[in-house]
Amino acid sequence: MFIGSLQAMPDTSPAGALPSTGLTLGNYREINAQVHLVRSLVNSGIFTGGVIACTVVFGVLAGYALARLRFRGRGTLFAVVLLVQVVPFQLLLIPLYVLIVRSYGLADSYPGMILPYAINTTAVFVFRQFFLQLPDELFAAARVDGAGEVRILRSVALPLVRPALLTVVLLTFIGPWNEFLWPFLITKQTDMQPLAVSLANYISNVAARAANPYGAVLAGACVLAAPAVALFIVFQRYFTSTNIGSGVKG
């Protein structure tokens, strides 16, 4: 994909996947002139960053409550969380659109794009399972010392579930970063559209008129994929199991 984005003329043969002479950055200039890559990347960063922040905050709170707090209906509530995961997001598009645009008046806004993704049941499930693995003795000792639930969550639980936190961040990042349908429905303003939406519009309306449409599309795909690859490379060293039993004797 990267080599194809640098080719002046498209070469779809197997040999075209190997570096060759005549490589150019013209495809990147071509697509930047049409979709403004920097502005689209900033929009994607705002959209994705807001979704990640909401997912982590609500996922941690809900996962901790389902794992460590005792209240009536906890099992039923967790079953509902699992049930929500089998509902395709496409079935919710129309009611969500009516709710966000007509009821809340959040069309052409970043909150309108972020709110439908603010709570991720998969993140809740992942955090709950990790919190369940923590030794009960750690929480009992913290309560004996007078710590409240918020202090226990912040000082005891969160430092031990770093692998889950990083996993949720990476999995959450991939979805909204590549999402183009929902942001396209919420805003038609080109200066607010994420990169995935801009690329979809480019492929549909402009690519056929480019000097090298394949190269321009591949250039946009490389720009879209680069942050996800970089994030995985940075985080992969942390995808190790924490020694959750190190805080207790025996």
TrEMBL record:
Signal peptide: none
One Pfam family hit: BPD_transp_1
Superkingdom in the source lineage: Bacteria
Subcellular location: Cell membrane
Keyword Membrane carried by entry: yes
Record's bilayer topology term: Multi-pass membrane protein
Xref: InterPro entries: MetI-like, MetI-like_sf
Sequence intervals crossing the membrane: 46-66, 78-100, 112-131, 152-174, 214-235
Coiled-coil spans in chain: none
Alphabetically ordered keywords of this record: Cell membrane, Membrane, Transmembrane, Transmembrane helix, Transport
UniProt domain ABC transmembrane type-1: residue ranges: 41-235
Family statement drawn from the similarity comment of this UniProt entry: Belongs to the binding-protein-dependent transport system permease family.
Protein name: Carbohydrate ABC transporter permease
Gene source species: Planosporangium thailandense
